[in-house]
Task: structure prediction
Amino acid sequence: MAFLEIRNLVRKAGAVEILKGINIDLEKGGFLVLVGPSGCGKSTLLNAIAGLQQPTSGEIIINGQVVNDLHPAKRDIAMVFQSYALYPNMTVEENIGFALEMRGMPKTERAEAIRGVAKTLQIEHLLTRRPAQLSGGQRQRVAMGRALVRKPQVFLFDEPLSNLDAKLRVEVRAEIKRLHQTTHATIVYVTHDQIEAMTLATKIVVMKEGIIQQVGSPSDIYNRPANTFVADFMGSPAMNMLPGHIDGGMVHLTGGTRLPLPGTVSAAPAQGTEVLLGIRPEAVTDRSLADPSAKHLIDIEAPVELTEPTGSDMFLILRHGGEALTARVRAEVAVEAGQMISVALNLDKAVLFEKGTGQRIA
Amino acid sequence: MSAPADSVSPGSARAARYFIYGALLVFALVYLTPLYVMLTTSLKSLDEIRGGDMMALPVAPSLDAWFRAWGEACIGVTCGGIKGYFWNSLKMVVPAVAISTLLGALNGYVLTKWRFPGHKIVFGMMLFACFIPFQAVLIPMARVLGILGMSNSTAGLVLVHVIYGLGFTTLFFRNYYEAFPDELIKSAMIDGAGFFRIFWRILLPSSGPIIVVTVIYQFTNIWNDFLFGVSFASGEGAPMTVALNNLVSSSTGVKEYNVDMAAAVIAALPTLFVYIVAGRYFVRGLMAGAVKG
Result:
């Protein structure tokens, strides 16, 4: 049985349904990332798990116990907020110890617990300071310490990195991952950053408008997106979507190119089906960078509209059959806007979507 | 601005500065003149006052008038000075300020962090209380005090001032707590703190500036109030402001201007004291929440 279960969770605000029947299972020690654009309901879902917002219907079960009617303090959870929510009038030590104090833990025990956590997070020298005297990264650590000290059954993170600058974000991200690996804590983590989702999660839930679009491992989500929304949302630059139709068991692109079925498709769709061929920029490369073990490498020629060197490699915006096609090539490839270039499409990595519904064809 | 900054010569900048400081000095003098006259007059003897020059410094400064005002001056038919009334005012103002501030804070807390259906209407009606003139509530208030058996008592005056002040204190605290992050409240809830614990441990300790603003505002208003004092308290129970009026307007015997002035300054001292002690927080508190961050 799963450690955290969410059953048919619905939340309405007035007539608007913010969550439309959410079902999620998370095993003990799992790292679940809820990801989606703003307004998709991911924060509402997190708040419902925390008990800060009551669901309209449905159940939340932690470790076999239905917690719907339990006060947030009684659910044995800890939450790290986007703004860190450190109590400004208390020192770091008092901040970390507040929950323990509320539980009535004796002072000496409390001090010991605080010291232990401070040591783990390397914030021992900050214990007597107030939040206003800390940097962003230090505040973030204190916020994590406040969650850790309670040894909760489930950790909830609400976009904890979005207030940090880019460099610090990468550091803290690695730290959270390390923390998860050493403590084997069960974590639910909300973010709108797909890279955070990919790097941290053992399980990703992609949401849109209160509906789960796909649940799966990071590689599932990335390589086999359930629909065009997930394909577009995860990955940067976004997956290329080339329109076409099925003709004689081949994909006939609007530009006239005929391609074999992608490796992810098991049975050919009906003749004439309108489709979108989804292919990630890294599967559209110059020959020298292409995966040598790929079964279907198809070369196409296309004019270059724009070059975007990133340093490590280069993105090219090509024009193919009236559609923009992003390719990722080696940084050393000598090409300029306006020239023609030959790129290889790795069809093993491509996916096919039904045009009308946007669903992936398996 | 079309003119670049370097087109202003140092000379004209300095002239402008002199002009500004000069104007400020003149206004400061105008405002301070009455205080000067009050202080000097209170230190003069009656003979010297009758001698004429209001602006002159006292020839032989003496605190006689101050002691007379405090302990001997006749107010109405009793001649015990204003000290009794001073204590009356203090006994009224301290609980009234404390209670109205605390209730205002609690109201602000509920109206921002524990919102209930119709919270906007409740707040709107409380705001409305700020615009009701004193005179309009005199008779209903007298009736209520009569029913409660609190007329002509300090407790009754405290009640009146608390009720009248609630609109303002609620407004102050609501606006301050509006900018207070909700996440802190949520975090405290998860940590296991209840309604009052969050209020005492998280919210109130972070409310220093707005408490100062509210205390100054309420203290000044209640201490200086004359209308409620004269309407709901009389005789020995009257507050300072009423006693001062009775002292100054009593028409028997010689008019002792020096005693009147001394009594007036004594009456003004507590508010002055509050401003000096807490004033530097005042502007900070008024501006708090106006700018985010």
Remarks:
- The interface with chain B takes residues 47, 50-52, 71-73, 77-79, 81-83, 85, 87-89, 98-99, 102-103, 146 of chain A (CB under 8 Å).
